[in-house]
Each structure stands twice: as C-alpha cells, then as structure tokens.
# Entry
Amino acid sequence: MSASTDTVHHRICPLCEACCGLEITVRDQRVIGIRGHAADVFSAGYICPKGVALKDLHEDPDRLRTPMIRRNGRHEPATWDEAWAEIARRLPALRAAHGRDAVALAAGNPSAHKIGLQLTIPRLAKALGTRNVYTASTLDQMPRHVASGLLYGHWMSVPVPDIARADLLIVLGANPVVSNGSMWTVPDFRGKARALQARGGRLVVIDPRRTETAALADTHHFIRPGADAFLLAGMVHTLFAEGLANPGGLAALVDGIAAVQAAVAPFSADAVAARCGLPADTIRALARDLAGTPRASLYARIGSCTQEFGTLASWLVDVLNILTGHLDTPGGAMFPQAAAFAANTSGPAGRGRGVALGRHRSRVRGAPEVMGEFPMVCLAEEIETPGPGQIRALITLATNPVLSAPNGARLAAALDSLEFMVSLDIYLNETTRHADVILPAASPLEDMHYDLAFPQLSWRNHARYSPPVFPRAPGQPAEWQTVLKLAAVATGADPSVDALALDAAQATQEVQQRFGDAAPQVLEATAHLQGPDRLLDMALRTGPYGDQFGRRPDGLNLAKVQAATPAGGIDLGPLEPRLPALLRTTDGRIGLAPDALVEELARAARDLARAPAPLVVIGRRDVRSNNSWMHNLPVLAKGPYRCTALVHPDDARRLGLTEGALAQLRRDTPQGPRSITVEVACTTDMMPGVVSVPHGWGHDLPGMQLGLAAQRPGANLNALLDDTLCDPLSGNAVLSGVAVEMLPAGPASVPPADPTASAAAPRTAVQA
# Structure
C-alpha cells in the first residue's frame, strides 16, 4: 500500500465577516490541519479560532446529511425524492388556496457567506411572489442600510474606515477585535489598530463595556446604552457651535447642511450629557478631535444599530464624517470598489433611481417594508393573526430566529401553528425543529466560495475565489440547486424537475434581457459554466476591473481569479475616492437632511429628558461564538464558560449578587413577565447600571440535535426582549439598552464542558 499524500487547499473562511484566507491540509479525505494563508492578499495569514473550527463543522456528527421529514411528531430521515414529493404535495396547494402572501420566506446570516444562496434567494422570493420576506438584517444591521440608501442612493453604499492610512479612529458601539469588523470587513483589526498607533495615531472607543477593542484603545469612554444618537447629535451641534463644520471637497456635492444645523439645535453637549452618561466637555472634545485630525473617521456598528434610534445614529455617523471633511478621503471613511455584483459600479455613474422606504406595509402592525423585507419582529404576529394574507407556510434558509430574535417563545408557538414549514439548514436546531421538511445543506468545504457582499465592505479592494475542498456526498445537491428547485416545486413544478435545466433556462433569459444583441456571444463565452460560477464570470467581466468579454484583455474574468487562488487572490489596491461617481441618488447629490431623519431627530429631541433606567441589559459576542450554531463545535466550545452576566461590582453589591452565583434577569412586557437565569461575573469592565449577556445561547429546547451545545446550554438573552419594540425607520429589533431587574437566584449550576464527547443523537427518532 502506498503512503498517503497530503494535499493543500486554499479557501476563504465563510464563518464571519473577516473572510480570512485559509490553508487546509488534507490526508485520506480528512482535514488534518488548518492555518492562515500567509500569501493571502487580503488577510495575510491572519486566522481566528473559527477558521480552525471548519474541520469540526465538516465532521460534526450532528450536521444533517439527509433530508428529514416530520412524521407523527418526530423527525425521521428521508430520501431527497421523498422530501421533494412532500413539498410538492403540500406547498403549491396551500399557496393556491390562500394566495401568494400565505407563504413567507426567512433567511439568516450564513446566507450572506454563500454566493449560491445570495444569487438564488431573490429568485425564490420572485417565484413565490410574496411580500412576506424576512431576514436577519432587521436583527442587526438594517439602520446602516437605510442611512446609506437615503444619503447615497443604494443600500450597499457603505463607507468604511480607511484604517491603513488613518491617524484617528473613533469606534462607537462596535467591537472589531472580536468581529474583525461588522459591515466592515477587516481581518486582524488588532494588528491594524496597533499599526495605526505605532505611526502616532489614536484609537478611541465609546462603549458601555470595556470590550476587547476598548482594552486596545488609547482612550475608552463609557456611554449609557441607547444614547448613541444623542451623543452624535451633541457632537454635530458642537461642530456648528464652534465653527468646525467643513465638508471640504464635498461642499459642492452636499445639500441640506443648514437643515441639519437647525435640526440639532436642541442637542447641545450640555443638553445631552446626562442622557449619555458622558461629561459635556468630553462630547465637545470628541467633536474637536474628529474635526481637527486630518485623517480620521468615526465608525459605529451593532450596538448603535440595535437600539430605538438606530437609524438616527447610523445617519449621524455619516453626517459627522461628512461635516468634518472625512468622507471619501484617504484615512477617512471611504467606499470600497468591489470587482463584481456592486450596483454602485454599474449603470450611469453618479445618478440613479435612489431608494424608497415603505412601498408597502405589514398586514398587522403596519411596519414599513425596507429593502424588500419586513422586520423579523413582525413574523410571529403575521402567523398568529387570522385574515387575508395570514402566513400559513414558511420557508427558512440558514436562520434561527427562535434564538436570534426577541420573544422566541412566541415565535416558536407561532411556528407550531403553521400548516407547513420547510427549512434549508445544516442542523436540527431551535427553529428547524418546527419544520415539516428539512433539506440539508452541504458542508462549506464541499462548496465553491466567492464573497458577494463583503468586498463591498472591505478594508482593501481584492478578488478571491475558493474551489471546493471535497466533492459533495453522492446525491447531495449544491445549495443553489436546492433553492432553484424549491422555487419551481413550490410554484407547481413536478418534483422531478432538474435544477441544472432550470439554471440553464434562467441564465439564458437573464443574459438575453441584459445583453440584448450581444447575448449569443455572452452565452457562448460562459457555456462551460453553470450556477454561481456563470453569474460570477459575467459579473467579473462586466465589473470595474473586468475584461469586458475581451475588449480589455488585461481585465478580470473568473478564470484569472481562479488561477490566482494558490497565490492568495488578486490585490486590487487600497481604497480610492469614488464620489460623485458612486452616487445612485436621483439628482446625483448627497441630501444630508432627508425628511424622515429630520423628523426622527425631532422625536429624539422630545425624548431627550427621559430618565435612565437603574439597570439595562446589552448583548455581546465572543470570537468563538459569533452565532448560535458555533456552540456545537468542540474547538469553539472548549474553555471557560462564556454565557455569563457581566456586572459591575458596585451593582453586584447593591443587588446582593456574588461572583459565580446565579441571578435572575427579569422584565415586564406587554405579553407578561419574562425572566432568564444566568451566572454572575463581576467586572469593572462594565459601566455601572449595565449588565451584559452574550448573544446566541439557550440550547435547552426539546427536539434539537445539538448534542455538544446542549451540555452547556446557557441562557437566551432575546427571551427577555420585546418583539413589539423596533427602530421605526428600519424595523430593526431593539436588543440593547432594555431595562431589566436583577435578583439573586442561587448557587451556580453550570456543568463543565466535554468537547471530546460525541454530539451525536439518534437520527432515526428525534422528538420534534
């Protein structure tokens, strides 16, 4: 027998927004090593524990490998033919009987890392014709999209800090040391921040917790949760009051500066100081520093988005960067230029259709549609409430809102009342346990990879492609094939319909619509490709760096990007100024004072005097557990127990809490009182009056197949929260700064983890 030969594979990590390049060593069809790819043009060898966990994910015995059908209350393995037959038997008839809006669609964060899903989910939504579309965007980031859409004309025109050339970076409500950026793709933030400091620059962090990023900063300021918009408005007021407002080269492109000045009149630093928990002099100093540093920017993220005035805060971040002359300038806040799929690089430069908010409203609450979707907090009520348009069936794609959305117990009960539910997922989890049919997704290592969204948010321009490391298991379709077939079967096609034939027909139609007389040549040039690869090749070739199907021979195409994989991809250079060409507003200008946001600022002014609650709760994330499903992977689950309530020692003494003991967090909601029990950890890293509980825990519900996660299930913070609360403009859930009570609840009872234990559970009879 010949000796085994190791093979080395290069791919992009799909587990968080950092998108790090990995080097994976395989022997006998098993992963034996994962490390950072030193030659990667974007991440330069950086890796975090999540990248190493890809091996655990690929090998996880709990990962679904066959379809599951719920029969007599139990999930049982089924063949693909059986699964498609069940969908064909039930879903089209339900849709025909109750109308298009009776079927809802919900998609989660992992879909943002799957080009196949990102390109086919819109096709599924279009085929269904439903208005009831929900995604995880309204659980963490929709305020940022709304602000970008209103200012620049497209939801994905998001400015990010040019950290490589900055001399000052102010970070508000974000923890990029852990996230490696959020709506900002920046692997090894720690290294880049230290480089900023080494050249004499400064990092300032404003957060109610002394986070991992705050520990690295030159200066950290505590702020009361929920007060970000008031702080930012106070900084804008200071710019005008002290004559510091100067948009620089953007002055000729920006309208509405006087309207902003009038709107912030009530928000002097003195007026907002108590609401923020920050001295007025500190607020003024922050504004002066931002205005007085030539290369600087302000960045805010999930903590600022997941609060009542989230869209207002996101808008004011851009207002400050614009008024201090730091937008679209090196070292400031700049717009990446993606090689493919970016709407702000196609069509006529500098002008477009803009965006529209609230083209229609949800049936029960009247919440406005944004980006073609309704707020996730509306899903339960739309299932529960009888009447025309009631949701009777649900399709979920890589999402777990029973854990990630507020009031998961209500949503779980609503899911149980559905007439039919289909899930595409890798796990039988807190949400998919309610599904009638679960269609398994392939392992990430069995799929090609190209980041569709994140190059539009990246710290440096690049193009990178990953081929599959392993072939898919026999009979396992690619996710894009599953979604295309689901769209067809749900709308009445025979369950034997071929996904590849569907893809070929749809690609031909799209090419003919887009390229007109040139369609035959484009179809011929891409005939050897299918699915995402074909669409990616077309997008690269017609993008800002593309070969334009031969008219620019030195430009990009898929073959060139694929060939560069071992070398770490293709570096497309640092961020460059892109205004006004990037704009897709109807008049080709930046309207700094949209009516909706000026009105929202007036609402905030009326709320300015509200007294702070004695104790509020915020979430947090850990580098090992950004999302709920990561708790089932041994390399990430090992180590100290992370689902703890961080409390300042003064609060602990006041409330009678002790280190390591249990506490009950409780609050009253319109649906009644709610509580969770969590272990106490005392630390001066917390602002007094604030308690922090991490996101994504609570793995103690029946019917799941997450054996390792169930060993230390933790407590679900979102179970405390109210699904009637959301930011009115974006519909984003309010997950931060919510008032709670905290009471002693007894000694600790958290079992030690056993990461070596099998996470497997019998697949033949899983109780649903």
About this structure: The CA atoms of residues 219 and 242 lie 23 Å apart. The domain at 152-347+587-606 is CATH 3.40.228.10 (Dimethylsulfoxide Reductase; domain 2). Confidence is low (pLDDT under 50) at residues 755-768.
